Amino acid sequence: MQHWEKFRTFKERGKWVELLFMAAAAAHGYHVLKPWGDSLEYDVGIEHRGCLLRVQVKGFSARKGKRGGYLCRLRHGGSGTQRYRPADLDLFALYILPAQAWYIIPSATVLFPKPKIDLTVYPDGPPRPGRHTHDHDLEHYREAWGLLAKDKRDLARRRSRKN
């Protein structure tokens, strides 16, 4: 049994992943803020040089097939069917538990012009030829901790550019 499988609920596991993100962000020199309660669309605030970035943290372990990537569902709400809106947050921090890999992705990259609900990331190597190549270009967001120091307006302009 993997250590993340010991949690009784996905909510407990999600809170643990948030703690992992906050510790990693602090280790990279960022000021971490935790909003009170669960009523906001983001989990963590990052303050850097007087600017606040809103980060939604999510953890994933489901693989698409034996050699596929990891499926990341960008939904929220009690039923898990609500989509995020670009105005709700600035960054997604996606943690792939088996690979212990973080993907720090500007929300505008995946929510604009049309919000994506599902992403696939490939921390173990590129996808098989001809499969999910549009998601493979997210690999440059792996461990992209420097994005936490960017301005909101700069992140909003990064729809598909590299950091």
Name of the level-1 CATH class: Alpha Beta
Structural class category: alpha+beta
Helix percent reads 10-25%
CATH domain topology? Trna Endonuclease, Chain: A, domain 1
Number of domains as seen in the coordinates: 1
Question: Care to give the gist of this entry?
Answer:
This protein is an alpha+beta fold.
Tell me what the structure shows.
The structure is a single chain. The protein has 4 helices and 9 strands. It is globular and about 45 Å long. Strand 7 (91-96) and strand 8 form a beta hairpin. 20% of the residues lie in helices and 26% in strands. The chain has one domain (3-156): Trna Endonuclease, Chain: A, domain 1, CATH 3.40.1350. The protein is an alpha+beta fold. The relative contact order is 0.16.
SSE map:
Blueprint: H1 10-27, E1 31-33, E2 44-48, E3 51-60, E4 70-73, E5 75-76, E6 82-83, E7 91-96, E8 101-106, H2 107-111, E9 118-121, H3 133-136, H4 152-156
Parallel strand pairs: 3-7
Antiparallel strand pairs: 1-2, 2-3, 4-9, 5-6, 7-8
Please give a handful of descriptors for the protein shown:
163 residues; two-stranded antiparallel ribbon; Trna Endonuclease, Chain: A, domain 1; alpha+beta
